[in-house]
Write a structure and sequence with these properties.
The complex is a heterodimer of chains A (374) and B (129).
Chain A lengths: L4 E11 L6 H16 L8 E5 L7 H8 L7 E4 L5 H14 L5 E9 L12 H5 L5 H15 L4 H15 L13 H6 L2 E3 L2 E2 L8 E9 L6 E8 L14 E2 L8 H13 L8 E3 L5 H10 L8 H7 L15 H5 L3 H17 L12 E8 L3 E8 L1
Parallel strand pairs in A: 2-3, 2-4, 10-11
Antiparallel strand pairs in A: 1-7, 4-7, 5-6, 8-12, 11-12
Helix pairs in contact in A: 1-2, 3-12, 5-9, 6-9
Chain B lengths: L10 E4 L2 E9 L4 E3 L14 E5 L3 E10 L12 E8 L6 E6 L9 E10 L5 E8 L1
The chains are: A alpha/beta (374), B mainly beta (129).
């Protein structure tokens, strides 16, 4: 990926905003990103909108509200990776020479509670075979079964991210929690308690990409899906085989993005990764090559993933603090990392960050990894 | 007259109880569930229907304490993954029943009544010790 720079970012906070439409949140994020880039909406040659629940032509509604029509507007759905998929398409449109300056944004306004998805057949819902938190829990159970990771380690991930979230004014939860509080919160699906699960919510994020200008470079970006066979994959199959030799989609995406950037895990200074639940974050660390499987225990013990540690992970507070507006979450990570690379992240700044990695994975086993370089 | 299966493409109900409907590909040497037009792991198109074993070993399990959208049956209930008897390995997601379930337990297939998509009583599958 050559010559793709992020020249502006914008964000509508993640949370609950009664009476505010997804379109309105998108307008806020887009206007902020355009203002940072020093351009108007009519200066972009295309727009890419990530959303899973936004409905028909969701991106068109945002651009329409800003009088930014007439250009190609692409609405992109890839589950939790929708924003990442939109970013990849947008970056490719610049790298290929098709466009010089484009807008990417993600919007979402989701109902409270367990996410409902047309991904599942009605009979599967009726049979109780569709609860996302239960599938997350089974993945976490496997981690506990096959490694030295314990339920306390899962709680420590929450404590870390919520501690980071205290310094993020755009997060839904800005209050620290203790291991005891995490373990004592309502049991949803063992071993996952309420505090170990992110909250589906509302929000928007936007970035402006340009061939020229100032800003971090999109050095690598890749969207990948699953290789079949893993019954615990995010594609939520009802059956699977021995998955010992099956590469997870996060690893496929990471390998591709690292190769594009000419970098590896050891080069990464700061990470934003998918923490739909605490177990998912620990899985991501290994799948992204940040540590071997089981090495998560040492990272937690050393505090290496905390801001101030060797390589902070989810300095924004992650989804466990921000909540997860599906279409906006990946671009929210990018907004955070651009601020980190600019050195403008305030109290949660990772000193001297030069290389950053963003990771999302979700429904359909869509995984997207983005490598940004200052 | 037995209750209808929750979906006839995944489950058969007859006098012998419930049976999980799988597929087998001679080319890929994989069993799979639910039955697919091609082997979902290799794409081989020589899938033949097979009735899957009615017993297996419990691998992972959890409780569902919050009713997921679209589900109107009883809560809490148990959900997990069973490794079916025989080779090669085939893992199946299933409702579970029984107390103090643990990895490695031997499990048996059975039917369980749940409200279907239109609230009509239907049979789904469950494994229990």
């Amino acid at each position: 990926m050559n010559g793709v720079r992020i020249t502006g970012v914008g964000l509508h906070p993640f949370g609950r905003f009664d009476g505010v439409t997804g379109t309105a949140m998108g307008v806020v994020a887009v206007r902020d990103a355009l203002a940072e880039a020093g351009i108007g909406v009519r200066d972009v040659q295309a727009a890419f909108c990530g959303t899973a629940y936004g409905g028909v032509a969701a991106g068109h509604r945002v651009l329409g509200a800003l009088a930014g029509t007439g250009i190609p507007i692409y609405d992109v759905e890839a589950g939790c990776a929708s924003g990442g998929a939109a970013l990849e398409l947008a970056a490719a449109s610049i790298a290929s020479g098709q466009h010089d300056r484009v807008l990417v944004f993600g919007i979402e306004k989701m109902p409270k509670g367990v996410i409902r998805s047309s991904f599942f057949a009605p009979w599967q819902e009726s049979a109780g075979l569709s609860p996302a938190p239960a599938f997350f829990a089974l993945r976490a159970q496997r981690l506990l079964l096959e490694t030295d990771i314990t339920v306390e380690h899962l709680a420590q991930v929450v404590v870390k991210n919520r501690r980071h979230g205290v310094a993020n004014p755009d997060a839904m939860f800005q209050k620290a929690v203790t291991v005891d509080q995490v373990l004592a919160s309502r049991m949803i699906c063992p071993p996952l308690t309420l505090f170990m699960l992110c909250s589906p919510n509302e929000g928007a994020a936007a970035v402006v990409l340009a061939r020229d200008g100032d800003g971090p470079t999109v050095a690598g970006i890749a969207l990948r899906s699953h290789l079949p066979g893993n019954v615990l994959g995010e594609d939520s199959p009802l059956g699977g085989i021995d998955d010992a030799a099956i590469t997870p989609p996060t690893t496929l995406a990471a390998q591709d993005a690292y190769a594009q950037a000419g970098l590896g895990p050891a080069d990464v200074d700061v990470v934003e990764c998918q923490d739909t639940d605490a177990g998912r974050e620990l899985l991501a660390w290994a799948e992204l090559g940040l540590c071997p499987t089981g090495g998560q225990v040492a990272i937690l013990a050393e505090g290496a993933a905390l801001v101030g540690g060797r390589r902070p992970i989810n300095p924004s507070g992650g989804l466990l603090s921000k909540g997860e507006p599906l279409g906006a979450s990946a671009l929210g990570q990018v907004v955070e990392l651009v601020r980190q690379l600019r050195g403008t992240a305030g109290a949660r700044q990772v000193p001297g960050a030069k290389v950053a990695l963003a990771h999302v994975i979700g429904r359909g086993a869509n995984a997207c990894v983005t490598v940004l370089v200052a | 007259m037995p209750l209808p299966p929750i979906d006839p493409s995944v489950l058969r109900v007859d006098d012998g109880g419930v049976t999980l409907l799988g597929g087998w590909s001679e080319t890929s040497q994989f069993r799979h569930f639910p039955r697919s037009p091609v082997c979902p792991f290799t794409g081989a198109d020589d899938v033949v229907p097979v009735d899957l074993p009615r017993s297996g070993t419990l691998w992972l399990h959890t409780h569902v304490n919050l009713a997921p959208p679209g589900y109107t049956g009883p809560v809490p209930y148990q959900l997990g993954i069973v490794e079916l008897e025989g080779e090669p390995l085939l893992r199946v997601v299933s409702r579970l029943a029984g107390d103090n379930l643990a990895t490695g337990m031997q499990m048996q297939l059975d039917g369980e009544v749940v409200p279907g998509p239109h609230d009509e009583p239907t049979l789904t599958w469950v494994f229990h010790p």
